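Hi R.,

Here's the chain you asked about this morning:
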Amino acid sequence: MSPIIRQGNLILRPISKRKLCPAVLCKPTTTADLLFIRNHLAHAEREAFQRSVDDVWCETAPPSVVKSATSREIDLYGHIAYSAVAGFPLLIVIGPTSKHFIHLANVAAVLEETDVGIPCHFTVLTRQREEFKFATSSSPEYQLWIEDLLETF
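And the predicted structure, written out as tokens:
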């Protein structure tokens, strides 16, 4: 079973305006899931932002091929590992300038488009009073994201 529950692009408001950002809702359970999710995000980031991602390897590569994590990946590995140990899903959104990690264990509420008042928009509120506003590019995509978020929340 794949550790990835939903993958696609979200618009992180207001930071990215209309820029689609790669996003993954995942629930890792093993150490192999860490590498699988990391590789998936590296490819998504490279495609979305036309960036060169160092040491990108495919999920079928043997462990001996895996190189040291770069300093910009340490936080990614930490958040994925914490999610695996805690047993709660994690929403990762790669913005144009930074990554956002939302542990669903820390989510206080998910506000749907009817609560927000804007079609295809939703908000995730954390217990630490952080507010993450998202939009999707279509209604069907919104339905898939909100359904998976509410189910895992």
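The mean pLDDT is 84.

Let me know if you need anything else.
M.
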